[in-house]
Every structure is written in C-alpha cells, then in structure tokens.
C-alpha cells in the first residue's frame, strides 16, 4: 500500500509537470504561482530522464503498482514515456487506467 501511494505521488508529480504553459498564467501576466509550482515540480521530480527511469526500475520494490501491470502493459507504459530536457514530456495512461484500480 505504501508503495502504491509513493507511485501515485510520483506519477501525479510527473503528470502535473507535463502541463503546458498555455494552460497556466504567464509569469508576466499576473499570477506566476502556477508557473513557479510547475518549475518546482520539475526540479524535484525523482524521474526526469530515461536514465533516472532505468535506476528506478532497477530498485523498484516487488509490490510496486508498476509491477502489478501485466508484462505487456508495463512494457507499453514504460515505452510510452517521452522525456525532454526538462523532464517527462508525455506518456500513455491507457494501460494504467485499464489495469490498475484505486485501493
């Protein structure tokens, strides 16, 4: 359960970091708090690159929700992760939505 929560938080941070600037107020347009939070999230995300992902996958506990995906779904999800110089840029959540349920 604890690992499920950690995984959920990690995915939430990664998802939040992929928001486009077009959806947020610009720093010069008044409320820069959303932009500041996005930058903080990007800087503190534990997985920012394919190399970080490999390290995480090498150390992920056996009871991690990621391991609860079928092998094919896990491979598709991991293969769908696209990283840019600033972190996670996009991913497919289809397999997560179809195979994992909230506990």
Output the strand order for the largest sheet: 1-2
Q: Estimate the mean pLDDT confidence.
A: 77
Form type:
globular
Number of helices: 6
Describe the protein.
This protein has 103 residues and is mainly alpha-helical. The chain has a domain at 45-101. 56% of the residues lie in helices and 7% in strands. It has 6 helices and 2 strands, in the order αααααββα. Strands 1-2 form a two-stranded antiparallel sheet. Strand 1 (82-84) and strand 2 (87-90) form a beta hairpin.
How is the secondary structure organized here?
Layout: H1 2-17, H2 33-44, H3 50-59, H4 65-68, H5 71-80, E1 82-84, E2 87-90, H6 94-99
Antiparallel strand pairs: 1-2
Helix pairs in contact: 1-2
Features:
103 residues, mainly alpha
Short description:
The chain is 56% helix and 7% strand. Mean pLDDT is 77; it is low at 19-27.
